[in-house]
Design goal:
Strand order of the largest sheet: 1-2-3-4-5-8
Largest sheet: 6 strands, antiparallel
Shape: globular
Oligomer: single chain
Low-confidence stretches: 20-52
Number of domains: 2
Radius of gyration: 19 Å
Order of helices and strands: HHEEEEEEEEHHH
Mean pLDDT: 78
Strand content: 15-25%
Helix content: 25-40%
Distance between the termini: 66 Å
Bound molecules: zinc ion
């Protein structure tokens, strides 16, 4: 390959990474699909490690700090969908798991412990309503919400189970 061709190619690669960055910041699943299309249509066989922008990979039989927000049981049939990041230090995952008594739950990790655990109809499905003591609940706030801002900004292990506890359980054991 000539030097000129190489220069054009690397500039296109940088443009490509820029575009992904822009789309990433929009942070929606629809945009994710667009990025995947870019890789396939325009880039052919990209030289960068593009594994993170290929269709999401699901880890079956995975482990999660998430517990049932209603009874605090360990979840079964845990799935972790890795949405990855263009940069290696971005952790972006969906975790889903099933409580034998209370059904499926799901949460999203974006480099920090999750703020909410959602009740869903199936892994990576739509939110479902659960009823607790006559109240309708779709999402359970975690104690990560209660961490002071200066501590939130520090580097924190996003999988530290202390922060995954839902307020409901934390208040119960307090
Ligand atoms: Zn449960």
């Amino acid at each position: 390959m000539s030097l000129a061709a190489l220069a054009v190619r690397s500039r296109r690669m940088l443009d490509f990474v820029d575009r992904i960055g822009a789309k990433r910041s929009a942070n929606t699943r629809a945009k994710q699909t667009v990025v995947v299309a870019d890789v396939t249509l325009e880039q052919g066989r990209p030289k960068l490690d593009m594994s993170s922008v290929l269709p999401p990979r699901d880890k079956v039989g995975a482990r999660t700090p998430m517990r049932c927000p209603i009874c605090d049981s360990h979840l079964r049939n845990v799935l972790v969908r890795d949405l990855g990041g263009v940069t290696a230090d971005l952790i972006w995952q969906l975790h889903a798991g099933e409580c034998p008594d209370h059904g499926w739950f799901q949460t999203e990790v974006i480099s920090r412990p999750p703020r909410e655990v959602f009740a869903v109809d199936r892994p990576f499905g739509v939110a479902r309503r659960v009823e607790i003591d006559g109240d309708e609940v779709y999402a359970f706030a975690t104690v990560w919400n209660d961490v002071p801002d200066d501590q939130k900004r520090k580097r924190t292990d996003p999988f530290d189970p202390r922060y995954w506890k839902v307020r409901r359980q934390a208040n119960r054991s307090a």
